[in-house]
Amino acid sequence: MSGAVRGNGLPYKVAPMRWEDVPAVMAIEHRSFTLPWSDYTYRHEILENHHSHYSVVWRTDISASKRSNWWTRLRRKNGPGKLVGYGGFWLILDEAHISTIASHPDWRGRGIGEFLLVEMIEQGISLGASMITLEVRVSNTVAKNLYDKYGFVIVGRRPRYYRDNNEDADLMTVEHVNSPDYRERLKSFRAALDEQLRQNPLCNGRKTTA
Ligand SMILES: CC(C)(COP(=O)(O)OP(=O)(O)OC[C@H]1O[C@@H](n2cnc3c(N)ncnc32)[C@H](O)[C@@H]1OP(=O)(O)O)[C@@H](O)C(=O)NCCC(=O)NCCS
Known about the structure:
alpha+beta, Aminopeptidase, 6 helices, 35% helix, binds coenzyme A
């Protein structure tokens, strides 16, 4: 994925995932999924798969304000703050398929997952997507609430999709994301989310996740 760091006055910024980000991504991955992807899967996704679009979210204000030049240089290489979430999708024709999304376990309930989802939907639309799909564990109520908020509906079930416990996956889809109605809805959710993210303190999320 190409492009610069995106952000609009928030203490969070979204940027394309880089190979240098993968160790921090893997740390979240192992705490978020019972079937974690390997770092080589991420390597393939960001460096070799031309259908892939992967992003990370940085919390940008976690640092002392005055640092020496070498520290500034190191931070620039390592990223503009703390990596608190990531997500990715594959775009094939007009369908964006969200392949992963996770926020840091210590940072959940603060809008980061929603921020990632909105960024991916907006990016998908700008790249020509008209529908977005994903699979989610039937038991993953938190994620399903998030998708439901953005108009995803369950359109099918994949039996025994997850190898660790043979849990089924729900296939969820939202169509016509490029329609004026959906874009308007996205815009108003985005405005409320930006406000929440702007006010969000460094500690104490809105809620804890299960
Ligand atoms: C799913 C996940 C990305 C959500 O991220 P998050 O940063 O905690 O979520 P947000 O704070 O942005 O909340 C967004 C929405 O998610 C839902 N949600 C979040 N926390 C919730 C909770 N504890 N209980 C119920 N719903 C919850 C709500 O719909 C919420 O919107 P609202 O604030 O208007 O109610 C995060 O829980 C995660 O990384 N889980 C592990 C990995 C995973 O399951 N990924 C999904 C794979 S399909």
